[in-house]
């Protein structure tokens, strides 16, 4: 198995994959743009609309529990976490950013399901808008590639 993946192209074929997206509504204009970009890319990669599930939660701290519920259902090949945390004047930014990221990673590891983390952590809203489209597309590509990789590994 040593070097088995060396030089191979990413498997971005989304046909027959089932992907769920959890969107935090806090900073909703930005997170909605992330979702739109993610879904558009999933479609380009061949994921059927009926195989894309989209749920919303209040904020980034609630994303991991929704991801865990979706993972528990065993209906999905990969999950996508979407949110936007903008630094404020207090330590709250660090707490929300760290805990939401740790929770997303914990779901992936505990449930052995790929989770593309597209929770932006930015200094200001301008940075969020500058990253929204690409980060949404990137999350879709990560979800599809990792779903295919996990299938190959099983």
Give a written overview of the molecule:
There is one protein chain. With 154 residues, this protein is α/β, with parallel strands linked by helices. The protein contains four helices and four strands. Strand 1, helix 1 (28-44) and strand 2 form a beta-alpha-beta unit. Helix 1 (28-44) runs parallel beside helix 4 (125-153) and helix 2 (63-73) runs parallel beside helix 3. It is globular and about 45 Å long. The protein starts with 18 loop residues before the first strand and ends with a helix. The model has no long low-confidence stretch (mean pLDDT 94).
Please tag this protein with its features:
154 residues, alpha/beta, Rossmann fold, 4-stranded parallel sheet, 50% helix
Write the layout of secondary structure elements.
Blueprint: E1 19-24, H1 28-44, E2 52-57, H2 63-73, E3 78-86, H3 92-111, E4 115-122, H4 125-153
Parallel strand pairs: 1-2, 1-3, 3-4
Provide a short characterization of the protein structure.
Helices cover 50% and strands 19% of the residues. With 154 residues, it is of the alpha/beta class.
Name given to the CATH homologous superfamily? Lumazine/riboflavin synthase
Instruction: State the low-pLDDT regions, or none.
Output: none
Instruction: Give the number of domains.
Output: 1
CATH hierarchy, class: Alpha Beta
Content-based structural category: alpha/beta
Please give the share of residues in helix: 40-55%
Report the CATH architecture: 3-Layer(aba) Sandwich
């Amino acid at each position: 198995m040593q070097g088995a993946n060396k030089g191979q192209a990413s498997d971005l074929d989304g046909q027959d994959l089932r992907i769920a997206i959890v969107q935090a509504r806090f900073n909703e204009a930005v997170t909605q743009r992330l979702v739109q970009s993610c879904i558009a890319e999933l479609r380009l990669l061949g994921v059927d609309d009926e195989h894309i599930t989209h749920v919303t939660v209040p904020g980034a701290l609630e994303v991991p529990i929704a991801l865990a519920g979706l993972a528990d259902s065993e209906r999905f090949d990969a999950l996508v976490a979407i949110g936007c945390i903008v630094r404020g004047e207090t330590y709250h930014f660090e707490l929300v950013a760290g805990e939401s990221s740790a929770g997303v990673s914990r779901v992936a590891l505990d449930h052995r399901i790929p989770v593309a983390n597209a929770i932006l952590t930015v200094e200001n809203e301008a940075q969020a808008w500058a990253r929204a489209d690409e980060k949404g597309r990137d999350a879709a590509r990560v979800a599809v590639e990792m779903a295919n990789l996990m299938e190959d590994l099983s």
